[in-house]
Design goal:
The protein is mostly helical. It contains 19 helices and no strands. The longest helix is centred in the last third of the chain and has 53 residues. It is globular and about 70 Å long. The structure holds beta-D-glucopyranose. Beta-D-glucopyranose (BGC) binds next to helix 6, helix 13 and helix 18.
Length: about 450
């Protein structure tokens, strides 16, 4: 076998493993939607306790995302990936064997920490180990793997719905986690991290394994050069005036991705369908499975469009779709007890909402976050934006059921619809088109003080 094809093969294996991390993220965040229907009955939970069970995972993820930048710099990418896989295994089993709600909440916190670290480390490791030409695609593939993980979790929920065996629903996450753990044992450390630590010879050895022989020296020198220029990890740069627009764009997009309500559907869809009048747990979980599949299909549809149409048109178009769907759902919920057809309109609105999210805020937000930070602060900047994403995910999930209790579903969805309008205005006024623009050009525009919308021109 030629050196070139074996290094290609290696990149495929690494990508598959990183995708597994995305899949785990999706599985562990999605599986609770069906399981909660039975956990609620078994443990006689109040609304607040249900929110706690759902949100503990997100609190863990927030903490995980905050510490992820620091620990990956300290211990290296490979060890952290291994540790994360280990926590996934432990957390899945811990939640599956919880005998009361307190254990369940602790287990979800532990799993959440793995999710927060995983959402940072998987794309970072990939970006550092993959050849430059495949980096962009891999970021979006991560999102695709996540949506597939959600579908898997819904399938498992559906399978166990008749018996209501929620420990199986939660516990089966252990399977991909063990595969990730075993696979990660064989992964090499990122050469970039090794060079950062002065382990030049080790880095050269890894590069020889994963690149064609002719590319090794050039890449080694390039990494060394960027590290000299970068002075990596200097977080004081974040307070520089010229960086501010980037922080506003990335944190803003992260927050808007969450407060427009996506995870009220991803985590609570069966509960929402139950409120819409579908009585059987099985049929509500089946409808949810449909939602998950639409999410995957429209994420696939979005991938080629991101580079053809550009990021802005997708965002603006998708947000209009989300807004209309939420208004339709809001009206349908208002009439849900007067007209039986309103039940079906709720389902239709949910599906068009998910489709609109999947072609816009779903993949595009993560892509822009990975593109717009200057190299110097990409790690720390991304970790802040990811933490904001989990933080607001937590806020929305923790308040959703309480809002529904207070305002009713109709007004709650109306609120998310209003937030879609604000998001649309934010994107229209501030978010740049980064399609076809080199990262160096974006950085030069930033330093020249160009308006944030024009950073990609
Ligand atoms: C979001 C998640 C969401 C998922 C749904 C991601 O882009 O960050 O919060 O659950 O999309 O597909």
């Amino acid at each position: 076998m030629s050196k070139n094809s074996s290094s290609n093969k290696f990149v495929y294996v690494v990508s598959a493993l990183a995708a597994l991390a995305g899949l785990l993220l999706g599985y562990d965040t999605g599986v609770i939607s069906g399981a909660i229907l039975f956990i609620r009955e078994d443990f006689h939970l109040s609304v607040f306790q249900v929110e706690l069970v759902i949100s503990a995972l997100l609190l863990g993820a927030l903490i995980g995302a905050i510490i992820s930048g620091r620990i990956t710099d300290q211990f290296g990418r490979r060890k952290v990936l291994l540790g994360t896989a280990g926590i996934f295994v432990f957390g899945s089993l811990f939640t599956a064997f919880s005998s009361n709600v307190s254990y369940l909440i602790i287990g979800r916190l532990i799993l959440g920490a793995a999710i927060g670290i995983g959402s940072y480390i998987a794309p970072l490791y990939l970006a550092e180990i993959a050849p430059q030409r495949t980096r962009g695609v891999l970021v979006s593939l991560n999102q695709l793997a996540l949506t597939i993980g959600i579908v898997f979790s819904y399938l498992i929920d559906y399978y166990f719905a008749t018996t209501g065996r929620w420990p199986w629903m939660l516990g089966l996450g252990v399977v991909p986690a063990v595969i990730l753990l075993c696979g990660a044992l064989f992964l090499p450390e990122s050469p970039r991290w090794m060079i950062l630590r002065g382990l030049d010879q080790d880095a050269l050895d890894v590069l020889k394994k994963i690149r064609a022989a002719s590319d090794v020296e050039q890449e080694f020198n390039e990494i060394k050069q960027t590290i000299v220029n970068e002075k990596p990890g200097d977080w004081r740069l974040l307070f520089g005036r010229w960086i501010r627009p980037i922080l506003i764009i990335s944190i803003g997009l992260s927050i808007f991705q969450q407060i427009t309500g996506i995870n009220t559907i991803i985590y609570y869809a069966p509960s929402i369908f139950k409120l819409a009048g579908f009585k059987e747990a099985g049929s509500t979980i089946l409808a949810t499975l449909g939602v998950g599949i639409v999410n995957v299909l429209f994420t696939i549809a979005a991938l080629p469009l991101i580079d053809r149409w550009g990021r802005r048109p997708l965002l603006l178009f998708g947000l209009v779709g989300m807004f209309i769907s939420l208004v339709v759902m809001s009206v349908a919920f208002h009439y849900v007890f007067s007209f039986p057809i309103a039940h079906w309109i709720v389902i239709a609105g949910t599906i068009t909402y998910i489709a609109s999210f999947a072609i816009s805020l779903g993949p595009v937000v993560w892509l822009i976050i990975s593109e717009i930070f200057p190299l110097q602060i990409r790690g720390i900047g991304a970790s802040i934006a990811i933490a904001a994403n989990w933080g607001f995910n937590l806020l929305v999930s923790l308040t959703f059921l309480t809002l529904v209790d207070l305002l009713g579903l109709s007004l709650t969805f109306c609120l998310y619809a209003v937030l879609c309008i604000i998001t649309w205005i934010f994107v229209y006024l501030i978010v740049p088109e980064t399609k076809g623009c080199s990262l160096e050009q974006i950085e030069a525009n930033l330093r020249a003080g160009k308006a944030s919308r024009k950073l990609g021109v």
